[in-house]
């Protein structure tokens, strides 16, 4: 905790603190300026930040390039949607069960895929994700590729009303802070040091006697559960689930967000999510102004921007704020 407090005294720490405060008061600002549609975008930014942080744990700190991470998005979402379809609306049932399923699936996938390296690991994680994607497409009882509407959001014995948009936003924000704290604790612990050491030099860590496979598998399971949490939230936000939640395109978007914000950086995924959605929402109308109907091809402009970040800001947006203080959870390579 001392390291975190020290980092808040630096310009970079102050910028991060202002960002978190800004996100905390977003519902009040959107209400004050009567721009309530921005609250929906802000909620999606927070949810995707959680998913990106979960991927960053294994990609940025562990060096595991998973190209199927969106599957946990989908599994978490389907846990809510399928139970709601059978009139089980209690969040006390939906959420723990969803997290358990995601963690179990991550353990199964990780136990097999972590026995490989490099491009083989990428392909196996993609293959498992596509397997679940096509299972979702084949679930006729739950809408197949048309998806399934969720009639009621999760309930928590009247403690919180998820239909109230500001309340739901603050719940998502609380989950973001909890995820931030969990990842910070992990990467600054002995466990996190071993994980980062295995990324830098696996052979040396094995020679020192560390069971690298078990450490990586544990990180993979934790990342899967956190990814499932974002899926639970997204299903409640959209009141809709579909196989597209776990397509390889979504996994690619998550990798782009992590790279854009800064791999191996604690707050990089938050910056990446904000930049991704701001660019998406602003480039579409700007391109439409130049030529009506071309806004849907906003990635034509976004792609070169991402290349520039990769070439001239290898630590992502987060690196532009300077190096993190020791113990602040940074770890740019």
Labels describing this entry:
333 residues; 70% helix; two-stranded antiparallel sheet; mainly alpha; globular; single chain
Spell out the blueprint of helices and strands:
Blueprint: H1 2-7, H2 11-24, H3 26-32, H4 37-59, H5 70-85, H6 91-113, H7 118-138, E1 148-149, H8 165-187, H9 190-200, H10 202-207, H11 212-238, E2 240-241, H12 248-261, H13 268-290, H14 299-312, H15 316-319
Antiparallel strand pairs: 1-2
Structure commentary:
The chain has 333 residues and is mostly helical. The protein contains 15 helices and two strands. It has helices at residues 2-7, 11-24, 26-32, 37-59, 70-85, 91-113, 118-138, 165-187, 190-200, 202-207, 212-238, 248-261, 268-290, 299-312, 316-319; strands spanning 148-149, 240-241. Strands 1-2 form a two-stranded antiparallel sheet. Helix 6 (91-113) packs across helix 7 (118-138), helix 6 runs antiparallel to helix 11 and helix 9 crosses helix 11. The chain is globular, with a radius of gyration of 20 Å. The model has no long low-confidence stretch (mean pLDDT 89).
């Amino acid at each position: 905790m001392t390291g975190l407090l020290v980092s808040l005294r630096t310009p970079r720490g102050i910028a991060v603190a202002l960002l978190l405060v800004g996100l905390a008061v977003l519902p009040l600002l959107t209400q004050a300026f009567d721009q309530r549609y921005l609250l929906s975008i802000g909620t999606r930014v927070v949810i995707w930040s959680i998913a990106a942080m979960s991927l960053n744990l294994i990609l940025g700190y562990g060096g595991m390039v998973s190209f199927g991470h969106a599957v946990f998005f989908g599994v978490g979402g389907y846990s809510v949607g399928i139970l709601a379809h059978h009139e089980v609306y209690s969040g006390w049932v939906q959420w723990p069960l969803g997290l358990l399923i995601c963690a179990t699936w991550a353990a199964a996938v990780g136990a097999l895929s972590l026995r490989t390296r490099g491009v083989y690991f990428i392909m196996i994680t993609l293959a498992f994700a596509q397997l679940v994607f096509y299972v979702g497409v084949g679930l006729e009882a739950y809408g197949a590729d048309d998806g399934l509407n969720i009639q009621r959001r999760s309930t928590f014995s009247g403690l919180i009303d998820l239909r109230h948009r500001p309340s739901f936003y603050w719940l998502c924000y609380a989950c973001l802070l909890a995820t931030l704290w969990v990842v910070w604790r992990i990467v600054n612990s002995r466990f996190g040091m071993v994980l980062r050491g295995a990324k830098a030099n696996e052979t040396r860590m094995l020679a020192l006697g560390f069971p690298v496979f078990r450490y990586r598998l544990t990180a993979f399971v934790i990342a899967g559960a956190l990814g499932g949490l974002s899926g639970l939230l997204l299903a409640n936000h959209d009141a809709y689930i579909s196989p597209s939640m776990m397509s390889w395109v979504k996994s690619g978007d998550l990798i782009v967000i992590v790279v854009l914000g800064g791999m191996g950086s604690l707050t990089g995924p938050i910056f990446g999510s904000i930049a991704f959605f701001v660019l998406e929402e602003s480039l579409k109308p700007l391109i439409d102004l130049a030529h009506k109907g071309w806004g849907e091809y906003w990635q034509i402009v976004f792609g070169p921007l991402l290349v520039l970040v990769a070439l001239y800001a290898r630590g992502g947006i987060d690196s532009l704020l300077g190096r993190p203080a020791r113990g602040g959870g940074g770890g740019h390579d």
